[in-house]
Amino acid sequence: MAIHACVRGKLQLLAVNDLLHTIHARVRGKLINKRVFPMFNIKNILITGLYFVSLLYVPITMADHASPSFETGAAGAIMTIPGATLSKGEMVFGFGVQFIEFDDIADAKLENLGTADEDVHSVDRLLSLTANFAYGITDDFTVGASLPYIERNDIREAHNDMGTGAAEFAGDAKGIGDLSLFGQYRFYRNHNLDIAMLAGVKLPTGDTREREVEGTLFESEQQPGTGSVNPFFGLAMNHNWGRTGFSANVLYTFAGEGAQQTGLGNIFNYNLALSYRAYSPVGGHNHHHHNHAFNILDYIDVALELNGDVRQRVEIAGVEEEHSGRHILFVSPGIRIGLGHRWSLFSSIGLPVINNHNGQQSEPEYRVIGGLSVTF
C-alpha cells in the first residue's frame, strides 16, 4: 500500500513539533529541552501525519527496541494480537509507527562510567516505521509479513581516554530492519471466543553496517538489523461480551547469534487488552470483521492495554553484558476507528509503570503508536 504525505508549510510542521513537545511536558510534568526533528525529510512528514491522527483522537493525556505487533486490521486492541484470523482470501496492507522517548543518561554520569571503563550507551529516541501485510489462506489460517525502518537518535557512549572518562557523541543509527514472517492458526472458535497459535521467524535482512560519526561500526545493539535468525512462537485469544471485548497474547522470541558475535537476548512479550465499542451505526458489537452495510464511519473502539516486554541480557562472544536486559510494562490507552468498511486508523500512548533495567540504560519515558490499514 502506498502512503502519500504532503507538506502543508513549514509553520504547520513547526506547530506540530511544538505540540509534540507539549505532550512530553504534560506526560513528564516538566518542559524538555531537546532538539526538534529535522523538518523537511519524507520520514518526518510521515511521522507528523501519523502523530496528527493520534492527536485528533487521543486526549493529551527496551533496552531501546520497538515492541512487536502484527497488524491484521482486526477491530479492538492496538498492540495485543487477537485470536481471530482473516477470512479466506482477505488481504490487509498496513503502515505503523512507534516512537519512544527516552530519559537519556547525563554526560556527567557517562564520564564517570567511562572512567570505570563501563560499556554504556545512551539513546535519546527510537523510531520504527513498519509496513505490514497479512493474507487469509483459509478462514482459520492467516500468514503475514512485517518490514520495519528503524532509527535511533543521538547515541552517546561512555569512553575511557587514557584513564579519563568521556561522553562521546556517536550519532544516529538508521536503516532497514529485519523482515518478520508469521503465521496464525485458529484452532478453537465459537460465537464469542477465538484461540490461535502464533509462529514465525525474523530474518537477518536488516542493515548491520551503520557507522558512528568517527567511522567505527556501531555495536550490534544499536544497528537497525541483528544479523541473526530469530524464531518466535505464541498464543493469542479474544472474547467478546456485547460491546465489550477482551484479548490477550504471549509471544516468545529465541534470539540467535548475529552480527559482531552478538546475541541480543531472548524476548518474552505479553499483552492484555480491554476494548469497548463506543460507536457503531448498527448498534451492535463485533470484534471480527464486518459485513454490514457501508458506512463512512464504521465503528469507534476504545481500548486499555497492558504491554509487557522482558528481555534477557545481551551476549557478545559468549559473555553477558552487565548493562543490558530489562522488564518494561506499558499502560496504553488507545483508539481504533473503522472507515468505509475497509480502512482502520489506530493510535495509542504508552506510559511505563514497570521500568526495570539491569545496570545503566536509557529508560523509556513514553511511547506513541499510530497507523492505518486497509482490507481487501
What does this structure look like?
The chain is mainly β and 376 residues long. The chain is built from three helices and 17 strands. The strands form two sheets. A twelve-stranded antiparallel beta barrel has the order 1-3-4-6-7-8-9-11-12-15-16-17. A three-stranded antiparallel β-sheet has the order 10-13-14, with no helix packed on it. A hairpin with a 3-residue loop joins strand 6 and strand 7. Helix 1 packs across helix 2. The protein starts with 9 loop residues before the first helix and ends with a strand.
In order across it, which strands form the biggest sheet? 1-3-4-6-7-8-9-11-12-15-16-17
Overall mean pLDDT score?
Answer: 83
**Total DSSP E strands:** 17
The structure class reads: mainly beta
**Helical content (DSSP H or I, runs of 4+):** 10-25%
Number of helices: 3
Distance between the termini: 11 Å
